Amino acid sequence: MTPMETSNEQIYNIYLPKVAEESPIDSLEKIEPVGKIRNYIDISFEGIKRVENGVSAFYPMAIFGYYGSGKTFFVRKLSEKIVKELERTIPLHFYLGQTSYFDLIKFVDELIESIEVFIERGDKTKATISGYNPEKWMKYLEVLKAAREKISNEEAEKSNVEAILLG
User: Fold this and answer.
1) Structure confidence by residue, pLDDT tens digits, 119-128
2) What is the value of pTM for the model shown?
């Protein structure tokens, strides 16, 4: 990325890979969505904000589209906006086609590991991390580790109950 000065604005030459999953956070932050994607981000953000403010209980989302249609770009830009503007919402997104993510504990473990690498090394290429704000992600990390502990405890309790019932 190389900045060029023109009057009061900076123009960047940004070199992006073909897929948004491999786009560095700092490059994506310099791209402003336009048109329908901008509208969808704004509508989705308002729905998520309603959940954070206690107006709605949840805001489920499913995104469908052809390869290269902007699905990952949309999700990463929405996540970036969440990181910048909301305090109690952690943007988590994943591709359901990856069967390993159906195992909730494994997904949370991989996410925790990604966040730790991001915080320690400033790794800016993880698609699950949006919004370059290591301090905020440190807070998210604490919450996710607590959630991981709770999930583990509930799984252990469930296993104990099953062992007693089946034993």
Assistant:
1) 887 665 555 6
2) 0.68
